[in-house]
Structure formats: structure tokens, C-alpha cells
Design a protein that fits this description.
The protein has a domain of 30 residues. The termini are far apart. With 54 residues, it is α+β, with helices and mostly antiparallel strands. The chain has one helix and three strands. The protein binds zinc ion.
Length: 54
């Protein structure tokens, strides 16, 4: 069973349909655990690794 939740920006509503009842295409919502800082965490780890190698 798919638990993909879609969102209509036009109606500000969540739906499971790829096209909202208003006719607009819905967008996939990001998982709640998505953290925008993760991409920087990757760089921080790389930096730390380089520091230890010196
Ligand atoms: Zn809509």
C-alpha cells in the first residue's frame, strides 16, 4: 500500500490524487524527517576527515 501523500498548493490541501479536484497537479511532500542541514553535515564530516588525515 502506497502512503504517498500529495499536496495541492492551489487549495493548500493534502490529497492522495496526482491531480487535485481543482484541476491543478499536486506535488509530492517531503518526508517529515527531511533535514535541510543534512547536506551541510556531509561537508562537515568530510572536513573533519581531512583534518584528521593531516
Ligand atoms: Zn487543488
Amino acid at each position: 500500500m502506497s502512503s504517498k501523500i500529495l499536496y495541492c498548493k492551489n487549495c493548500d490541501k493534502y490529497t492522495l490524487k496526482e491531480t487535485c479536484s481543482c484541476g491543478k497537479k499536486t506535488v509530492t511532500t517531503r518526508p517529515a524527517k527531511f533535514n535541510p542541514e543534512d547536506k551541510w553535515g556531509k561537508y562537515r564530516r568530510e572536513y573533519k576527515k581531512q583534518q584528521q588525515a593531516l
